[in-house]
Every structure is written in C-alpha cells, then in structure tokens.
Predict the 3D structure of the following.
Amino acid sequence: MRAHITGWGRFVPARVLTNDDLAQIVDTSDEWIHTRTGIDERHIASDDETTSSMALQAARQALGVAALKPSQLDLIVVATATPDYLFPSTACLVQDALGASRAAAFDLAAGCTGFVYGLSMAADLISSEAYENALVIGAETLSRIVDWSDRATCVLFGDGAGAVVLQASGADGGVLSTVLGSDGSGANLLCLPAGGSREPASHHSVAEGRHYLTMRGREVFRFAVRILPAATRRVLERAGLTLADLKLIIPHQANQRIIEAATRSLGVPPEVVFSNLERYGNTSAASIPIALCEAIEKERITQNDLLVCVGFGAGLTWGATAIRWSVPLPPQPISPWRRIGQRLRYLYAAARSLIRRWLRWLLARGTNWQDTDRHTSHDE
Ligand code: UT7
C-alpha cells in the first residue's frame, strides 16, 4: 500500500498586513523587509479566528476535493506551534467540528517542519495498513505569539492553514520516501520561553514578554541554507531518484534568500523551486501545504510529476518528502448537490456535538442529584 494525496485545501484570514502597515508600528521599511526576506504582505487572523477554525476550513476543502466523508477518516494530525490550547489538542477540536467519528486525532509539534513530519507519520501508518484515510493539517496563528514591538521577528510571520487528505492505494506513486531529523542542541535558537510547564504563565513572565517567540535569525538562516539542499538530496536518494527527475520543490516559506541559496546549492533552475512567501510571510507549519495548494492552482503540478516538500524549523528539526503526484489535475469540480450534502453533514456534526455536550451535562446533573440524595439519607 502507498499513501496518495487525493485532497487538498487552504485557508488564510481575510485581513492583510502590508510592509507599509508594519512600518507604522515598528521602525522598519518596505524596502528592508522586501530585500531581506522577500515578504510583501501577510494575513493576520481576526479576533474570532483561531488555529482550529482555520484548520477546519482547510480540512473541509481537502475532504471536498477527495470526495471523502469525515466519517471515513481514520486519523487527523494537526501540525502546529500555536494550538488553540496546550490541551485538548487542536486536532480533537477539528475532529469534533468535522464529525470524524472514527478518527484518532493528535497535534504534532515539530515547528515549521511539522507538516512534513505529519505527512511522513500518516504515510507510514497507511503503508503499514494500520489506516486507510488520513487528514494532515498544518495550521498556525503566529500573530498571537509574536511581539509586535520586535521588528526583528514581527515582520516575518503570518497566519493560515493548509491540509491534505492521504488515502491508501496499491497504485504506483504517492509518498515515495521521507527523511526526518532533529538537533535539540539548537532548541534555544527559536523558542517560546514561557507558557509551558518550565515557566508557567505568571505576572512576571507576562510583564517580561516571555510569551512571545524569540529567534536568533542569523543562526537559523545558516542552518536552513545547509539543511534544505541536504534533506532534498537525501530524500531523492532514498527514493532511488535524482535531481534531474524533479518537477517541483516546495520548500518551507521562511525567507526568499534562504530559498535562493538552497536553489543555487542544489544547482536546479529557479522555476523548479516554488515560492509564494511574498503574499503570506512565514506561516510555519502551514507554509508547505498552502504553497502546495497554490502550486496546484497555478498548474505547476501535473499527474506523475515528482515533488519534494522540504522544511526546517524550531527544535531544530528538518524533514523532506518525495511524492509522485498520482491524481489527475485539475480536480473534478464539486457538484452543487455534493456541496449541499457536505454542508448538511457539517450541520449534523455541529448538532451531534451539541447533543453530546448536553447529554454529558444531564448525566453529570443526574449523578450530582444521586450523590446529594445519598449524602442526605446518610446524614439522616
Ligand atoms: O521558519 C523558520 C524560522 N525562521 C527563519 O527561517 C528565519 C531565518 N533568518 C532570517 O530570515 C534572517 O536572519 C532575518 C530576516 C530574520 C534577518 O535578516 P538578516 O539579514 O540576518 O539581518 P540581521 O538580523 O543580521 O540584522 C541586520 C540589521 C540589524 O541592524 P544592525 O545591527 O546591522 O545595525 C538589525 O537591527 O537589520 C536590522 N533589522 C531591521 N531593520 C529594519 C532587523 N530587523 C529589521 C527590520 N527593519 N524589520
């Protein structure tokens, strides 16, 4: 069995923050941001948008393209560094909203490499025949952990989500090979110091701004320029393929200079490497699936093409996946009837969730009454 990508979807918030907007907030300029990073604008979540709400939108689209019912999912993985809560997992919130009644669900923390880690885990579980259908999502609300007074970091990040559906099939292609790695000695290079169990939230931690992400940009840059080409070469080697077989590389979208340096080091033409960070900034675990969706929309991928998704990030972590694209493109448009069916299914999922909560509340009240009765009769 091989894991094939059969569905994909992306979501970004409507609100756009340009470099000029940022220059009103911190001491920076469009010129500096554009030349040093390649970023022109990024999308920022509104107050009522969260990592789970964006993940849900991307997931619904991906399931629609795959023509798969949520109840057919065996597994939901949400790769994120900005979950709605430390627990429960964002994946469980998505599972409930989708009505994916059979699915296991968990979050995965591997920084910006999270989506590649998730893809690899899900593909392996499918190849081992443990599962048939998996949903892998990369989703982030980085705007909530960025220090908006720190020009060195706030100009880099954006919010959004991307998702793919992976399905088992004996057909050729799909996920061919993966490479994952980590080096925790670089943990301090990209870190959210407070809010975890080492330094729980306190007046002190908040006053010192230790709930904001910190980054040693130059060191991360050097690491990225070295690891992107190395991981790309290794994942191709594992699949028994070479750079000449490659149609498209979809790298983590962190900095255009990193992408260009990796392109030079690999010796591939620039058109082989996809980039869209000028409009999204760095959306961490969401950047690769968002870029994958855009590459499909821009007809940069056709059936049988060989792709490599390659990422790096906090941890430090890195990872790459080689994929032989196996489904026809463009996808069949979704018929209005199927769209109505999907909408009804999500309404049913919301009603089901509400009824479950309500029953649980009733049950808890019933138990409380019984307990009160028992105590009263005991006292008597
Ligand atoms: O997803 C993975 C995580 N992150 C990354 O991949 C990021 C990797 N690193 C980078 O992309 C780059 O290192 C940055 C874009 C973060 C920074 O670019 P750089 O060329 O490494 O700049 P720098 O940190 O060496 O700073 C150069 C100068 C400094 O001024 P001085 O010390 O030379 O006077 C900074 O204070 O630029 C200054 N600077 C800014 N100036 C205007 C830093 N940020 C800004 C800014 N606007 N936003």
